[in-house]
Amino acid sequence: MISNPRIDEFKRETKIKAALFGATGAVGQVFMWMLSDHPWFEITRIIASKARIGKEYGDEVHWILPMEIPKNILKITINDFDIDAMKAEGIQVVFSALPNSIAADIEPKLIEAGFSVFSNAAAMRYEDNVPILIPEANIDSLSWIEKQGYPEKGFIITNANCSTTGLAVAMAPLKKFGIKDLFISTYQSVSGAGHPGLSSLDITNNVIPFIGGEEGKMIEEFKKILSVEIDIFPFCVRVPIMFGHLETVWVEFEKDVSINDVLNAWNESANGLEHLPSTPVRPIEYDPQEDLPQAKQAFYGSPAGMTVFTGRLKKQGNRIGFALLVNNVVKGAAGGSIQNAEAFVSKYLDK
Ligand SMILES: NC(=O)c1ccc[n+]([C@@H]2O[C@H](COP(=O)([O-])OP(=O)(O)OC[C@H]3O[C@@H](n4cnc5c(N)ncnc54)[C@H](OP(=O)(O)O)[C@@H]3O)[C@@H](O)[C@H]2O)c1
Predict the structure, then answer these.
(1) pLDDT value of position 333
(2) For the chain, which residues score pLDDT lower than 70?
(3) Which terminal residue of the chain has fewer beta carbons within 10 Å of its beta carbon, N or C?
(4) Ordered structural domains, the chain, with CATH
(5) Which pLDDT belongs to residue 270?
(6) Could you identify the atom of ligand 1 that is nearest to the CA of residue 23?
(7) Helix ranges, 245-293 (H)
(8) How far is the CA of 233 from the centre of ligand 1 (A)?
């Protein structure tokens, strides 16, 4: 399964060299899959924990994705963290799929060394001038890299926590109605905890109504992404599925909003992002069938896993309710980060 059927449309003569930190993890694997045939980026250095240095990716990775591992990444050697070597190799872009504690140490060094860093970790998300970028929701925050000192200096662009990403994509087109407050319940897959993540003894035949730190992240990140000061009431729950976070949402608006108003706003979302190879033709797909969306659709859409699926739209009193599905490791992580890097290349390198 190739990640992006539109690859030929976007081909460029020389690809931009990129490094990937955390290549063997749940998110790192999605980066490896999506970048194995990406039209703009070429991964020339991959990094994991020290014990893997010098070994081949295919021998070291415990592949958890539903598609076959691409053949052209099997023999890539896992390398060490060496800033001088990265510069000598002509690497410009760095993708980070590191655990927070490691990212907190490594990412500032990469920025300091002048790289363009695109991170999935939360370590730097809440700092001033660091955008939590979701092109469909807040493309304007891309220019914050200038406040970080770009082009003279390196910079970091983060993407949101996975459950926040789905919520922000679905809510951004509705912001114009005046969001008063939000009640959310999530049903989050186990891949959200990384690999090896949760013990199978804890999650098999079970549902766990607590994910450490997740509810606070949803509140803080949603407000930063959409620049709103509202009350948000999340419950985040872990469920025994592999991929995809389902969420149910109740929102109250300042204006009187009909179901058709919501559908029209969703249909118009992401106009103007078609030039980014990883942007789906329709970033939000609504299905009126009453039992959709379902987690098994996590890798549906084109590019696979980049669409946010919505359904169950209803109005009760003054509130609009709906369900959404986001692929936590693709749109909610690696794919979102790649799309952010595409937005950067398009605005600053290819202008
Ligand atoms: N999973 C999701 O759905 C999701 C969604 C959004 C954001 N995120 C964020 O994305 C990041 C990665 O998440 P994940 O789920 O992919 O985690 P993971 O499965 O635990 O993977 C962590 C990766 O980091 C590598 N690593 C660990 N220590 C390292 C070190 N000292 N130096 C270099 N590499 C090191 C690991 O290599 P080894 O295999 O060698 O240990 C592995 O490749 C986290 O910050 C997470 O919060 C995750």
Answers:
(1) 98
(2) 2, 270
(3) C
(4) 7-161+333-349 (3.40.50.720), 162-327 (3.30.360.10)
(5) 66
(6) 43
(7) 259-267
(8) 28
